[in-house]
Write a structure and sequence with these properties.
By secondary structure, this protein is mainly alpha-helical. It has 9 helices and no strands.
């Protein structure tokens, strides 16, 4: 009948003079159905795992592409130009309270960069990427920008800003919180 001895034996037994052939046939079919379901579940897990990796790769590609745009470059340059000004903290706090157009531009730049770094952090914390991939996305110069340029503006904007992404990235390369950020936090704690 079939080329499989086990199946032949089962079918032969069922067709023999067994008293309850229907029950045995039902058990065999249930077993076969269960086995098929198990294989389908494994296939679904396998598919989900590789779909997740593919989605992560697409998102990573978008993040890398976005960071290389002129808008990001201008945002970094704008924030950096304010950091190098004499008495930076008092000047930025003054224009923040006055809500000038200059501060609005600075805040848009801060938000753009801060959200970029937070998205990368969310990928890592969500285990969509490991530290090896993270270091490809966040090389040391990018972490220095996050810690030394973006983080001080985060501290000025909100004393209770989420420090975890900056600390996590800093720990990758042993880059500590900048003295400017520490000064801002100290100033607000007084």
């Amino acid at each position: 009948m079939f080329d499989y001895p086990i199946i032949n034996n089962i079918i032969t037994y069922i067709l023999s003079e067994s008293t309850d052939k229907f029950v045995i046939l039902k058990l065999v079919l249930t077993f076969i159905s269960s086995f098929g379901t198990l294989i389908a579940a494994f296939a679904a897990c396998y598919s989900a795992f590789y779909s997740r990796r593919s989605s992560s790769a697409s998102f990573i590609s978008i993040l890398i592409k976005d960071y290389s745009t002129e808008q990001y470059l201008k945002s970094i340059q704008l924030l950096n130009s304010w950091l190098i000004k004499y008495d930076f903290v008092n000047k930025i706090i003054d224009i923040k309270h006055k809500n000038t157009k200059t501060y609005q531009k600075i805040n848009i730049s801060r938000r753009l960069l801060a959200h970029h770094f937070y998205n990368i952090y969310a990928l890592r914390i969500g285990k969509m990427i490991d530290d090896k991939v993270l270091k490809l996305i966040m090389p040391i110069d990018k972490v220095e920008i996050a810690r030394n340029i973006v983080e001080p503006f985060e501290a000025i904007n909100n004393i209770n800003y989420d420090k975890k992404p900056y600390d996590y990235f800093g720990n990758l390369y042993k880059i500590k919180m900048s003295n400017i950020t520490k000064g801002i936090l100290d100033l607000n704690n007084k």
